[in-house]
């Protein structure tokens, strides 16, 4: 502005109207910018931790006028380039304040390229650095800052340039480094307002780092300024949160009452009242908490809640719902306030309230169920426990529900250890009672020694693992089946039967489709039993359609079909595939012993699997005279280790005997 006014007078006296019109255009644009920026700065003054805030509509209109006039200078007066650097710089910084950072960067770089001697060059680097920070292009921002500090250090006299490194550190999640930069600047900053800004930012970072004592030291000794109400309130709000976090609840309550009496904070009254209500609830003074929170929501009902835009009201409604649900056990009032909160403007409160409402509705439905079978009743009881724990956040209710299910005489050996294990985890993780949880884990080991839950209990108590589970037994059986192929017996047919028995006995385990594939593969590649192989491949996809072994079996079914057609054999019908046939060799004693020691993870679902898989290995229907070729001895496992069982996703499976050593 100082550069333009004298120029207008000189231009008018020497060159006439054309020059005056040219400079007037720019002057009007610059005036519009400064008018808008003055209003914008009043708002940004309250947000010292932000480089720029979104301008109001009125301010944005003034910025648009500044850009329009600057563009006119470039377009209409294209021959008078002497003043074009002013127009470019004005456009660059105006775009920055409009938060249009890509355009800001483009105009500022154009200025640096076309007018390297312009007096606006030093500041152009400053706005470039800020724009790059806002774009999260932090490396480029650091480059611009380094140029300023090396070439134009006068711009950093108030540390406004070097403090940009604070913003970069924060965006990189380097909070400790950001604090270090501010501590260095704090002793050099002269303005009391700037010091307050730094202390506020430092204390808030200390709180994020959970270094509450350091934050309290800064906040308690820093004076509050009447002309800085936003900063003063944020400091007191931060100090109040510190008192709460260090469990100085009585001190926090007194401080909240002090804040409520300050006229300076009148516009934040409801926000402080909300904190006081939550604080009273935390102190166990639930009736007082309800009274305080009800002051915030006094005029709210189902007809007005959707029109209220206050986030404080939404949160107060949700907190009232929590108190009635968790502390009072009053689900009627809890549901009332959750419904109001779910209709409010605060998306977070809406989401949280909707989850609670859904859980309460489901709880009511589960509790009202009658005449259920024992299995369904047990499943319902367990689901209620899960609702209390995960959806309603009531660990005591969850613990009692699981323990009640465990003690129910109708629960049975399938449900009891599962319920007791759930109660142990609630006691440890949600109730913070490790003594109680340890005693429950020990009870599981003593009363249900051969179950998966006993193994879990041993792991949680860090005891030696002595429990053999169904999964362990299945792995042992799989290894024994492999030994039949590679051992001295060289019994491929027996191995096929053994793998098939694993599928029948452990159909609920992850190893089952792998064992079924092994049986099919040996029947196909080694015994050349095409019909049997085809039936087994198809059964994999019938029983385990999502397994990787189904993906591997599908192309082999097509090959088997083609082979059978070539041999003149009709397709085997689905009915034929399900027919039973005589089984192969008897299981050895070790297999039987392993089955007897299976863990009590044999729940109703695993029983159903065993019953479903009770059919025998299908008998070969094709009369084939080919003899089994003698297999070469191999050291590696034919079908890999169970521990190497891949995740259930389609993969390429080898088809040749040589490449079968590992299925990945």
Molecular structure report:
The chain has 664 residues and is mostly helical. The chain has five domains: 1-164, Tetratricopeptide repeat domain (Serine Threonine Protein Phosphatase 5, Tetratricopeptide repeat, Alpha Horseshoe), CATH 1.25.40.10; 173-246, no CATH class; 264-365, Serine Threonine Protein Phosphatase 5, Tetratricopeptide repeat, CATH 1.25.40.10; 369-460, Tetratricopeptide repeat domain (Serine Threonine Protein Phosphatase 5, Tetratricopeptide repeat, Alpha Horseshoe), CATH 1.25.40.10; 470-661, no CATH class. Helix content is 66%, strand content 0%. The chain is built from 31 helices and no strands. Helix 4 packs antiparallel against helix 5, helix 10 (192-208) runs antiparallel to helix 11 and helix 12 runs antiparallel to helix 13. It is extended. 39% of the residues are buried.
Give the rounded overall mean pLDDT.
Answer: 82
Strand content: under 5%
- Low-pLDDT runs of 5+ residues are 12-17, 572-614, 619-664
Shape: extended
Q: Which structural class is indicated by helix and strand composition?
A: mainly alpha
What composes the largest sheet?
Answer: none
Q: Could you tell me how far the N terminus lies from the C terminus, measured between alpha carbons in angstroms?
A: 73 Å
Number of strands: 0
Q: What's the alpha carbon Rg, rounded to whole Å?
A: 38 Å
Number of helical stretches of at least 4 residues:
31
Give the total of domains: 5
Question: How much helical structure, as a percent, in the residues?
Answer: 55-70%
């Amino acid at each position: 502005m100082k550069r333009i006014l004298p120029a207008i007078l000189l231009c008018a006296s020497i060159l006439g109207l054309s020059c005056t019109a040219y400079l007037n255009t720019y002057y009007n644009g610059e005036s519009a910018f400064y008018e808008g920026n003055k209003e914008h700065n009043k708002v940004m003054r309250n947000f010292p931790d932000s480089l720029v805030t979104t301008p109001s509509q009125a301010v944005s209109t003034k910025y648009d006028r500044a850009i329009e006039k600057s563009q006119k200078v470039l377009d209409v007066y294209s021959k008078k380039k002497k003043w074009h650097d002013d127009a470019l710089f004005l456009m660059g910084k105006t775009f920055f304040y409009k938060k249009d950072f890509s355009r800001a960067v483009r105009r500022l770089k154009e200025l640096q390229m076309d007018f390297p001697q312009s007096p606006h060059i030093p500041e152009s680097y400053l706005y470039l650095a800020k724009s790059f920070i806002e774009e999260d292009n932090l490396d480029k921002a650091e480059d611009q800052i380094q140029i300023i500090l090396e070439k134009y250090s006068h711009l950093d006299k108030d540390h406004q340039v070097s403090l940009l490194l604070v913003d970069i550190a924060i965006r990189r999640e380097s909070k400790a480094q950001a604090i270090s930069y501010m501590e260095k600047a704090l002793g050099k900053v002269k303005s009391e307002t700037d010091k307050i800004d730094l202390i506020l930012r430092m204390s808030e970072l200390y709180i994020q780092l959970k270094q509450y004592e350091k934050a309290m030291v800064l906040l308690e000794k820093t004076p509050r300024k009447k002309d800085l109400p936003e900063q003063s309130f944020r400091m007191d709000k931060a100090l109040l949160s510190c008192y709460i976090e260090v469990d100085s609840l009585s001190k926090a309550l007194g401080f909240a009452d002090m804040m409520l009496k300050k006229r300076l904070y009148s516009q934040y009254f409801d926000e402080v009242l909300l904190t006081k209500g939550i604080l009273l609830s935390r102190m166990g003074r639930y009736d007082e908490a309800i009274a305080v929170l009800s002051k915030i929501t006094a005029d709210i009902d189902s007809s007005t809640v959707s029109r209220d835009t206050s986030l404080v009201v939404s949160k107060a409604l949700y907190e009232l719902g929590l108190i009635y649900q968790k502390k009072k056990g009053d689900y009627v009032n809890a549901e009332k306030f959750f419904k109001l909160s779910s209709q409010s403007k605060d998306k977070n409160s809406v989401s949280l309230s909707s989850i609670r409402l859904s859980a309460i509705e489901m709880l009511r439905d589960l509790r009202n169920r009658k005449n259920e079978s024992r299995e369904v009743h047990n499943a319902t009881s367990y689901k209620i426990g899960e609702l209390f724990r995960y959806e309603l956040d009531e660990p005591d209710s969850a613990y009692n529900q699981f323990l009640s299910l465990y003690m129910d005489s109708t629960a049975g050996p399938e449900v009891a250890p599962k319920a007791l294990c759930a109660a142990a985890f609630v006691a440890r993780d949600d109730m913070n009672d490790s003594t109680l949880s340890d005693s429950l884990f020990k009870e599981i080991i003593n009363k249900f020694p051969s179950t998966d839950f006993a193994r879990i209990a041993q792991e949680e108590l860090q005891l030696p693992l002595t429990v053999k589970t169904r999964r362990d037994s299945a792995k042992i059986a799989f290894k024994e089946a492999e030994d039949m192929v590679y051992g001295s017996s060289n019994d491929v047919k027996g191995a096929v039967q053994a793998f098939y028995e694993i599928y029948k006995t452990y159909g609920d385990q992850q190893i089952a489709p792998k064992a079924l594939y092994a049986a099919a593969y040996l029947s196909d590649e080694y015994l050349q039993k095409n019909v049997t192989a085809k039936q087994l491949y198809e059964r994999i996809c019938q029983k385990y359609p999502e397994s990787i072994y189904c993906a591997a079996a599908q192309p082999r079914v097509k090959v088997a079909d083609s082979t059978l057609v070539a041999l003149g054999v009709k397709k085997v019908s689905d009915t034929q595939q399900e027919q039973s046939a005589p089984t192969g060799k008897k299981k050895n004693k070790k297999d039987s012993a392993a089955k007897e020691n299976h863990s009590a993870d044999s729940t109703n679902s695993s029983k159903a699997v065993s019953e479903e898989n009770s059919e025998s290995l299908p008998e070969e229907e094709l009369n084939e005279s080919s003899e089994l070729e003698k297999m070469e001895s191999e050291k590696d496992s034919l079908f890999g280790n169970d521990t190497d069982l891949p995740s259930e996703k389609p993969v390429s499976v080898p088809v040749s005997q040589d490449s079968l050593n590992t299925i990945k």
